[in-house]
What does this fold into?
Amino acid sequence: MRFELTGEQDQIREMVRSLARKEFAPKAAEIDEKSRYPEENLKRLAELGLLGMLIPESHGGSDAGAVAYAIALAEVAGGCASTGVGMAVANMAGEAIYRFGSEEQKRRFLPLLVSGTEAGAFALTEPSAGSDAFGISTVAVPDGDTYVLKGSKSFITNGSRAGVAIVMAVTQKEPKKRISAFLVESETRGISHGKPENKMGLRGSNTVSLSFDDCRVPKRNLLGEEGEGFRIAMKTLDGGRVGIASQSIGIARAAIEAAISYARERRQFGNPIADFQAIQWMIADSATELDAAWLLTLRAAYRKDTGNPFTREASVAKVFASEAGYRACHRAVQIFGGYGYMREYPVERHLRDIKVTSIYEGTSEIQRTVIARDLLGQGHR
It folds into this structure.
């Protein structure tokens, strides 16, 4: 078993680390404070091919693979978590269109997403359908050469910035509920968005509600086959969960690096606090858990790259990385003491940013359910 990165993966890590630390990190506090969408950061990512890492070169992507994507996303999130979210959604939406879309859809939408000309969005969650994704109530009724969408979505990342959103809607209620996926363009009549949500963290990431009022979507914008939407959503979320694990690790690494630097400089009782066992153990626990989280994330990404099932592995990586990452950020604030509670120090932002990683794209409780169902239903592979 080999644990080394390939030469290409190592180059990607070094390139993105330099970018994130030199260009993204210095602006992260300002982006957070003003709740400003980091458009210039995403343009830089597009220039470097980092918005199409899971898409073949034949369709404008860089085809770097899931492992390289996890590496790059962790570095970006460590510099600016809000920018990391934008990168993650662009790659997730683009990959879904590549995997399930027609050639005409790929030609129309992928160049726009990969180049950063337009953002993408993934619209599944509704006010009364979060963890119960199958409980969505937005409907799509066929009418001539269109579908008419009615309903609403909530907590949609890039909702008011996206040129195209992948929207899940019910196309058949009886005798068996069927959900379909649609590519809804931002200029379509009948689509509107609410005001940006005032969030605890990831404040530079655009999050809004979407409403569909007799929104007519051409039938050519049906993604995959009618009734295939739930499967598309679950397959897309599997990959997305590897991304969330990577985000968690990147944010937590940045928090621990800041805590280590502070512990070396801060003196109490005549010594640097880094000399005290209580501080050393907090740092050691965080480093150990993040190493484990990273290996779990790489395992899931590697299985994806090699065409093996990775649903359970993605859930294992997400639940462990998001919760270990939160603990690491909490410890970092504790190491800073009173200063960690102040906004002028980055660990306060890291703690706010990381909290949502155990909530979105499937809560920790849902991940545990996915893991348990796989083990109880199929046993160990």
